[in-house]
Predict the 3D structure of the following.
Amino acid sequence: MANIVTIDSVTTYNNLRGVPTLHPLVTVIDLSKAQPMPAQTFNFGLYAIYLKELNCGELKYGRSNYDYQEGTLVFIAPGQVMAVQPKVTTFEPKGWALMFHPDFIKGTSLGRHIANYSFFSYDVNEALHLSEKERQLVLDCFSKIELELQQNIDKHSKTLIASNIELFLNYCTRFYDRQFITRDNAHKGILEKFESLLNNYFASELPSNEGLPSVAYCAAALHLSANYFGDLIKKETGKTAQDYIQSKVIDVAKERIFNLNQSISEVAYDLGFKYPQHFTRLFKQKVGMSPQDYRSMN
């Protein structure tokens, strides 16, 4: 495995890009005025957001390619690993980068709500694709943050910069909601694929061998990250992905309970429950009666 370079401070990153450090915990960089990133694997200790305006090579998140295009926002959270693989030895980078250290937002509104911006943990192929109007809003946000960084640091700096970053991320939340609805990509028909996946799973020997399907399992089978998959299902159904799986389990269980050749415990084991009492508890929670009562009533 290639050596992994840790970027744990804004100064380290600025030095790598050959730009001055205006604030020890935040930086905004016009990539056309910065040195290109070397072909290297990096472990980020910072929040990083890139507006890529030129497809200059491949980005790898973990072992997979990050499918970004021109006019795409790429989000990286502390602890994530990103590899840079330029298409050519030398190229002119274009776009913008915003970095901020997690310590910067401690004690701010942004710090309290940063976990709500789930796009920071999205896996590959899930970058935010911008319209031209959205791109202009992003550039305006970057410009305001950069302008504040150019001022002398005073007691207002942290509040103003953090507020502008939070405003920018709130715009991104709106843009992602739009992308869920309008983007014509491989996610189209995801609910149908999810339903088919569950049907095939419970029609096989997988439940008794592997247990109940998890959200992570379903997301991986559909080539999505768990967070992004969960957001898609929530948008489509109003239910969490876990609730949807449980509803499918109960639906299958209602049919199998009528097989009098199987005990309730055997039905539970065949559905993937490790303990029959867990099945009984879930069934009663969802249906309002125990599996045995449901069998007797019908």
